[in-house]
Amino acid sequence: MSSLPSLGQDKSPLYIPFCGPTLLERPLYNKGSGFSAEERREFNLTGLLPAIYETIEEQVDRAYKQFCSFEAPINKHIYLRNIQDRFEILYYKLVQTHLEEMLPIIYTPTVGEACVKFSDIYRGSRGLFIPYTEQNQLDDILHNAVWQDVKIIVVTDGERVLGLGDQGIGGMGISVGKLALYTVCGGIDPGQTLPVVLDVGTNNEDLLNDPMYMGLRESRVGQAVYDEFLEAFITAAQRRWPGLLIQFEDFAQPNAMPLLQRYRDRVCCFNDDIQGTATVTLGTLLAACAVQGKPLSSQTIAFVGAGSAGCGIAEQIIARMVGEGLSDEEGRGRVYMVDRHGLLVSDMPDLRDFQASLARERVGIDAWEIEGEFASLQEVVEYAQPDILIGVSGQPGLFTEKLVRTMAGYSERPIIFPLSNPSRHAEAKPADLIEWTEGRAILATGSPFEPVHYRGEVHRIPQCNNSYVFPGLGLGVLAVGSARVSDEMLARASEILAAFSPLATGAGTGLLPDLTDIARISREIAFAVGKVAMQQGHALEMSDERLRDTIEELYWTPEYRRYKRSSS
Questions:
Q1: Residues 135-171: pLDDT tens digits?
Q2: What residues does 16 pair with on adjacent strands?
Q3: Are the C-beta atoms of residues 342 and 349 closer than 8 Å to each other?
Q4: Helix 172-186 and helix 518-535: axis angle, to 10°?
Q5: How far, CA to CA in Å, does 338 sit from each of 304, 328, 353, 500?
């Protein structure tokens, strides 16, 4: 396939090699009613479009009116995906213009429903669907991608979609949504992104028995076959696009951390569920600690949910504590991890490698009077008296009234983050947390919630959303051509996010900045992580001025360019 011209940021005319209906079938080039009279004549479009010419702003107004005509979020999601698949530049302009309203539609929580119903609402292909049965054809498959200058891939196997479990190829909805946010929030040229789903079967019986399911109708492959397929895919992707940034998304716990550990020192990659979630959580925690007036290293933290995401957050928190002056042992002594069996302790059977380093020794809690073999969350709160409570369990209602009131009894400003999503899986509802703490809690959630009115005050509920971080991270990696994504780069991104907290800096009442400010945040994160990448030798050195200029040169905005006819 010949390479298609990149939209880029250049304001000069863009030379297009196709015309007529073929041009209208190219989503990233199709302006619809935005084609000028001259372009319509030059590209044989006369008569194929209504006579009226509209600016992109006028098209946004029309599209937004249509968007508002739908009531159910899933129908709004389907409408936006249809716009994306027909008029892609308009789609990004529309979402960018109404980001706060549309983010929950293209991302959490609505994208979860879209993944569950993926085969039912399927309208057309986007990205690559790669079955393990075609492993020997990987090079050909990757050459079939529409765009030939791919810089970022979001890849999933769909086994752990949000808190919804195995959705098979339905996980493609997450890959598509994440890359839309790379463009809208981080200015990544959409022609340089590629969503990928690896079809290795599914263990979801509903999907296996659903005649509408479009993936392989067989159980997930065994570990040896799986590992061989993943290795072949990573190798082929790097061969096709050297220096590619690969984002792992929604891999289940048994594979998520091993994949990250296997490839993080070989290729430029990261796992958003583990590292992205940890980065945005740490940034939000740093802001919350600033509001409290206490450093993170002085806090005691309890987690409910000791999977790869929870442990990833804990490890970044400990690293920050060490950076603030604690020893590694002291930092780990301030973290309590609770899973479905209770508090992780070193003699607990079947601990995973990433859990073992966070498990407590029995000798440290031998004075606790607990009812079962392992301390419950309630007992951890009563005896350890954590200042911070973080939920990444996917189990609603775990933060009970008794638990929260216990915490509020010894902490003046408890920090409580029920981060599980979608919203119905949150460990507690913000309204309840505010009532049970008499309005004193500092909150952040994983999914969007409406403001809470309590005793004459309005409490805005900040969403601890990965989109604050990963788009800027990707922009920074591309700006300097970083060969790796390091822990230090992620830690720096957390610090930048915290520095934008209106509440912590006295610039406003929100713990996290408004989404309308996310483009500025992404640029600053890109600059900061680019600097770290250069300092660590992952990228060639450039001056601060040149780095700023490069970020601006890369930052793509959804505007129409003038088209000229090309003969090839």
A1: 999 999 999 998 889 999 999 999 999 878 999 999 9
A2: 565
A3: no
A4: 90
A5: 5, 20, 16, 31
**What does the pLDDT average to over 392-400?**
94
Mean predicted lDDT score pLDDT of the chain: 94
pLDDT at 6 over 70: no
Q: One-letter amino acid identity for 22?
A: T
The β-bridge partners of 198 are: 130
Go through 7-35 and write b for each residue having 16 or more CB atoms within 10 A of its CB, e for each that does not.
beeeeeebebebbeeebbeebbbbbbbbb
- Rounded Cα distance between 163 and 419, Å, is 11
Bridge partners of 418, per DSSP, are 391
**What is the C-alpha to C-alpha distance for residues 329 and 394, in angstroms, rounded to an integer?**
29
Strands 563-565 and 14-16: parallel
Torsion sign across C-alpha atoms 124, 129, 131, 134: positive
SS3 label, residue 64 = helix
Exactly one of 107, 213, 555, 563 is catalytic; name it.
Answer: 107
Distances 277 to 204, 265, 419, 495 between C-alpha atoms, Å: 26, 20, 9, 14
Residue 300 C-beta-side C-alpha neighbours within 13 Å: 13
Residue 321 and residue 297 in contact, taking contact as beta carbons nearer than 8 Å:
yes
Residue 1 is predicted with a pLDDT of 36
**Could you say which of 31, 178, 429, 531 is catalytic?**
178
107 assigned to active site: yes
Whole-model pTM over 0.90:
yes
How many contiguous H segments (helices) and E segments (strands) does the chain have? 25, 15
Determine the Cα–Cα distance for residues 154 and 126; give it in Å rounded to an integer: 12
DSSP-derived 3-state class of residue 425: helix
Contacts 24+ apart (CB under 8 A), 32-40: 32/59, 32/86, 32/87, 32/90, 33/59, 34/59, 34/90, 34/560, 35/563, 36/562, 39/562, 39/563
CA 130 centroid distance within chain: 22
In angstroms, rounded to a whole number, what is the distance separating the alpha carbons of residues 435 and 440? 9
With residues binned 3-state (H G I as helix, E B as strand, rest as coil), the percentages for the chain, rounded to 5, are 50, 10, 40
Active site residue 178: yes
For Cα atoms 516, 62, 81, give the angle at the middle one, nearest 5 degrees: 70
Exposed (0-12), middle (13-18) or buried (19+): which is 227, by Cβ within 10 Å? middle
CB atoms within 10 A of CB 553: 12
pLDDT tens profile 508-550: 888 999 988 999 999 999 999 999 999 999 999 999 999 999 9
